[in-house]
Amino acid sequence: MSKKNLNMISIYVMGKRFSVPEDLTILKALEFSGFRITRGCGCRGGVCGACATVYRKQGDYRIYTSLACQTVIEPEMSLVQLPYISNNKPSYAVSEMDPESLDIVKTYPELLRCMGCNTCTKSCPVNLSVMNYISAAIRGDLERVVELSIECVMCGLCAARCPAELSPYNIALFIRRLYGAHMLKRSPQLEKRVKDIGQGVYSAEIAGLKKTDNKRLQEIFGEMQAKKGASV
Amino acid sequence: MSYPAGMRPSVEKVAQRRKERLNNYEFPRLSPEDKAALLKNHHPDFREGDKVLLRCGANKGERVPKVMAAVMESPSRLNLEAVDLTKPDYRTDVLVIGGGGGGVTAALTANEQGAKVLLATKLRLGDSNTIMAEGGIAAASLPEDSPAAHYIDTMVGGRFKNIPEVVEALVNEAPSVLEWLTKLGVNFDRKADGSYFNHMPAGHSFKRSHSIKDLTGLEFMRVLGDELRNRKGIEVLEFCPAVELLLDSEGRCAGAVLEDLDTGRNIVVEAGAVILATGGMGRLHPNGFPTSNHYGATADGIVMASRAGAKLLYIEYIQYHPTGAAWPEQILGLLLSEAIRAEGAHVVNCDGEPFVNRLETRDALSAAILRECGPRGKGVETPTGTMGVWLDTPMIDMKEGGKGKGTFLRRFAGIHHRYKKYGIDPIQEPLLIYPTQHYQNGGVAIDVHGQSNIPYLYMAGEVAGGVHGHNRLGANSMSDVFVFGRRAGRHAAENYRKKPVTRLSLDHVKAHHEELAALGIVSGLRSPMLLPDYRFEKALTSTNYVSEIVEAEK
Fold this sequence. Notes:
B: seven-stranded mixed β-sheet; five-stranded antiparallel β-sheet; disordered C terminus
């Protein structure tokens, strides 16, 4: 972005007006305005969920939610960052739980308070079908919860907006862990590899390689690369 | 929005020439000699003038990037007179500094061994480079693969500079890390028969990278953070970065001083052992490059450990990831997973011509892109004056006569989502890329337990040096953070100092200030930096880094 000929627009941060170049993300607009962010900024790439932001547009009654690092500013938008949201997270031992039993509802009994208003889905900045995964959780359809929630960035906006006071993102994480730990197939292949390494099956070979000169290592590498072929 | 008019003709050329490149065409691989020459002539690591020799401290004479010297040769941000070390705010068996993959793993492991753990982190728990890892975690899990083959690939990738014993630990423990993560509830991608899905990142000889879509690190951090909060005996201090290490009267590590970012108060922690897991230096923008790193990657651990007397290894070697986003400007520097190339996308110039094999290692590919954009003049210029070349993503769904259809969306949902916001569909159009600072290859020298040369001071993850030699292979960083997080956590929990410290000391920081004064070194900075400053005009300058580099290349 050239510094010359910047087209400036107004935004409101917690009610205060700032003039910033158009096309910036909310995060960069905050920084351009002079805010040095400690809370409310993490990966700057849309995966960590630290920069949850709530805003309204001029002449529009709706509340909008987004990630500050991923959203381009609009003229006259009025915003505030919401980088921390209290949530409910019980302690549990995933390895000792039974995914087929009522452990899910016992761990998060408030699940049953969901009234199906869909506010969670509307507030998700990465467009997940939050209400649908909560419904799937109530039905005990773990696979569906995993499928619908795997992209969750844990920003907490769903929990901030839920009138039934659920923390949907924590519930989804709990269920994904149950599913990953209990429902996915074991891999005999991997178990064998771990066992072999433990029994020192590869020790002699690696000990030999540690003494091998670089030229020879390069040659072996070349042979392995040649064998792997073009398709990966 | 899509691509602006000025870039469209090049997009068309890429589309026209795509057919020639389908049907298993691959650009020839570099010979070891050609690769060495390419690196020497075009990789920023080898450019004169970007590095300087350190003038003071335990690593005096070491070649480091200029920005690293600037923070290392600055006075402490701690006001030494204002700190009372006689009444520590916390006493713990093991202090873990850093809340990414290495730190959380070390904390969980030390806790399992019965140690009382305090974890202090600069931002939120999990805000780190680990959470951003897209591609996967390397482990020799297939029958045809072996830890020995993983060892060879890692050594070759590291230009044979890796510490062999440390690499041995890495390749031997990576498969058990996979098992450990699975038991904690990580939803690894699976094949139809339930076995692990794996792919082959550049520089590896077998399919040994294991992923969760393009959200691998996010899934790891969510699960590990959740597990950490389940445990009793681990206290977490968020927004409390360490600003200096504490030593005892014999120069052994004995804790740290933290700074509460919310209140400005200093917190003194006495610890039986300290594990540094503070990550790398991306946000210092070495050599003026954009970075794929998270907001807090300011090399704090290197600064603190070096002041305490820790020896550094290979800190001058920086990894530039070849596939950083170069357009749109809003996501400049953001990483595009290596797995995109592994799935079949070629790297091509403004005319749609291939100029490098897509599976070269990161250093070689980055150098080739810089050469294409610089001296060869075959880069694509954006309206904001930055340069890039194309990553031809539509090839993925088109490969094998369309058999790949649906692959991109299934494998790279996050990337697809991100670009669609800006009107670019990676299934239909290529993505513009330019190298982005990605990884600090070196760091504080460690042994197989993650120990530094300072007793009771451990390293885990990117802050450590030696695992990856001069250049890290893709997917090896995820193995690294977990293998050495576990090793450091275990060893620290078994060997921490059991007796109380007689006298906590910051004398080493005082000595650092005296050395700066004696050498007449004046710095406008105070360090560790903790966070970069992007306020005001600096919010716009991120792109200028790139054009300056392009200028320099000409």
